[in-house]
Design goal:
Elements lengths: L1 E3 L9 E3 H5 L2 H14 L3 H20 L11 H11 L5 H20 L28 H9 L6 H15 L4 H5 L6 E4 L2 E7 L5 E5 L2 H14 L11 E3 L6 E5 L2 H14 L10 H12 L4 H7 L5 H5 L4 H10 L5
Antiparallel strand pairs: 1-2, 3-4, 4-5, 6-7
InterPro entries: CB, DNA_brk_join_enz, Integrase-like_cat_sf, Integrase_catalytic, Integrase_recombinase_N, Integrase_SAM-like_N, Tyrosine_recombinase_XerCD
Pfam family, one: Phage_int_SAM_1
Protein name: Tyrosine-type recombinase/integrase
Length: 322
């Protein structure tokens, strides 16, 4: 069940019944958490899904009628249930969603204590990321196979090149404007808006510089400073629109380009960030500098993208001569 919370001058959003039953102040605080407490849209979506599922379970399965009645036992039971159908990272993220929301409700004096604070999630230790990575030869093969006689080809090569040579996340790349590619000290630079609203600026590798110049000049968007850098292609026109390229479309493009290049590895948007970091480290780069270039707060995160050990493992496996 769910009820509407009616706010003056606003459409009435649907609230979980347990939240609506706690009153208008609780409902407003609940909505504020997602609107003001979380800035990343992907995190907001994941947290909303987790909270909606938990509160629906509380009402339907645990017989909980109000927010004040939610106990650590309820949170622990739901988390245990999640471990049966979801991976450890997903369960830990869902528990984090509960902790953060209940903290928000406590500070807003909606509930007295946080029922998720003492609940422990499943153990999870990661030494290496799961993102598929291309070796340098495959990455070069992919870039060289893109037909740059079209606007789409110029755009796709520039986008993939940006992710490889600047370690940019796809989310940061797709919110760039044309003005975020600029000249400084006679060198082209890129400005990225990374997670948490952090602004990250990097000089361009000479190859990326060539790709971006070709894209901006070849498509005629160089003068549209406030327009999106990476755009959709108009249906039937083959020309760029002024609509930003959605992330799902970028993924489809990457898969299509990989297939056309004869690359069997099931790559995605995040592949190129890991590919660039691994190539940098393989050519003598330091982990500390890689972390700074990738805008990582810790080198431990950067290590997850380092796949040099994969090559060592493959070499060692070939020693098994039977």
């Amino acid at each position: 069940m769910a009820h509407d919370l009616i706010l003056p001058g606003r459409p009435s959003p649907i609230l979980p019944a347990i939240v609506a039953a706690a009153g208008e102040r609780a409902g407003l605080r609940f909505l504020e958490f997602f609107a003001a407490g979380i800035h990343n849209p992907n995190t907001r979506r994941a947290y909303r899904q987790a909270m909606t599922a938990f509160l629906a379970w509380c009402e339907a399965e645990a017989g909980v009628a109000s927010l004040n009645a939610v106990q650590p036992l309820h949170v622990a039971a739901w988390i245990e249930l999640q471990t049966q159908s979801h991976s450890a990272p997903t369960v830990k993220q869902r528990l984090a969603a509960l902790r953060h929301l209940f903290d928000w409700l406590v500070t807003g004096q909606v509930i007295p204590t946080n029922p998720a604070a003492a609940v422990r999630g499943p153990r999870h230790s990661v030494q290496k990321g799961k993102t598929p990575v291309l070796d340098a030869a495959e990455a070069r093969q992919l870039l060289d196979c893109i037909d740059t006689s079209t606007s789409a080809g110029l755009r796709d090569r520039a986008l993939i090149g940006l992710m490889i040579y600047s370690f940019a996340r796809i989310g940061a790349a797709l919110v760039m404007r044309v003005e975020d590619v600029y000249t400084q000290n006679r060198r082209l630079w890129v400005r990225l808006q990374e997670k948490g609203g952090k602004r990250h600026e990097m000089p361009c590798h000479h190859t990326l510089e060539a790709y971006l110049h070709a894209y901006l000049e070849g498509t005629g968007i160089a003068g549209d400073a406030k327009g999106p850098l990476f755009r959709t292609i108009g249906r039937g026109t083959g020309r760029l629109t002024r609509t930003p390229l959605p992330q799902a479309n970028a993924y489809t493009m990457v898969r299509r380009r990989a297939e056309a290049a004869g690359i069997a590895t099931r790559i995605g948007n995040h592949t190129f960030r890991a590919t660039g970091i691994t190539a940098y480290l393989s050519n003598g780069g330091t982990l500390e500098n890689a972390a700074a270039m990738a805008n990582h707060a810790s080198t431990r995160t950067t290590q997850l993208y380092d796949r040099r050990r994969d090559e060592i493992s493959l070499d060692e496996v070939e020693r098994i001569r039977v």
